[in-house]
Amino acid sequence: MVRMSAEERRESVIRAATSEFARGGYHGTSTEAIAKRVGVSQPYLFRLFPGKRAIFLAAAERCVEDTIRTFREASEGLEGEEALHAMANAYTEVIAEQPERLMMQMQVYVAVAAAEAEGDHEFGEAVRAGWMRLWDTVHLPLGADVAETTTFMAYGMLVNCLVAMGFPPSHRVWEGLYPSARFEGRLRK
């Protein structure tokens, strides 16, 4: 059996943490569950990351970076409405095929709100910085138009909420979205 490097283990921890946090949230997920999923001891887990918060932030950062990469690749060489539909289509494909990414996003928003309520603003600042990178990634292909970017991001959040709540693709709530953001035929049953 080939031994993994510390960096490869870190990657496996981030993937496992994303799965665990997506299902259980920050407060409902134990580091024991993450360590078990990876196949390492908790002490080893804490040699890779200083604590649960650091693991969660690494998973949150990965989630944002994956979404940025999705938008960047989808909009490459495009602008305006072509970029908008390419990014919307790519995003809906990703969250239909990888629902854990969507659920992780939703858990991140909840965790930030809880941290802010507890007076921990550093946590939210880290997440907001990532979200602003996401905003900027969308903003430029949409012609650096604030209204277009806001609308695109608002539709994205609506899609997140509709999918997270389990609205079927045929439900009337999807009718107002642009066709590239609809889930018709994309969601797993």
List the helices and strands and how they pair.
Blueprint: H1 6-28, H2 31-38, H3 42-48, H4 52-75, H5 80-97, H6 99-117, H7 121-139, H8 146-165
Helix pairs in contact: 1-2, 1-4, 1-6, 4-5, 4-6, 4-7, 5-6, 6-7
Summarize it.
The chain has 189 residues and is an all-alpha fold. It contains 8 helices and no strands.
What do you see in this structure?
By secondary structure, the chain is mainly α. 73% of the residues lie in helices and 0% in strands. The chain is built from eight helices and no strands. The longest helix has 24 residues.
Mean pLDDT score, rounded? 90
Indicate the structural class.
mainly alpha
Shape: globular
Which range does the strand content fall in? under 5%
What's the count of strands? Answer: 0
Overall radius of gyration? 18 Å
Query: Helices and strands, in N-to-C order?
Result: HHHHHHHH
Major β-sheet annotation: none
Head-to-tail CA distance between termini:
37 Å
Q: What is the overall number of helices? A: 8
Poorly predicted residue ranges? none
Question: Which bin fits the share of residues in helices?
Answer: over 70%
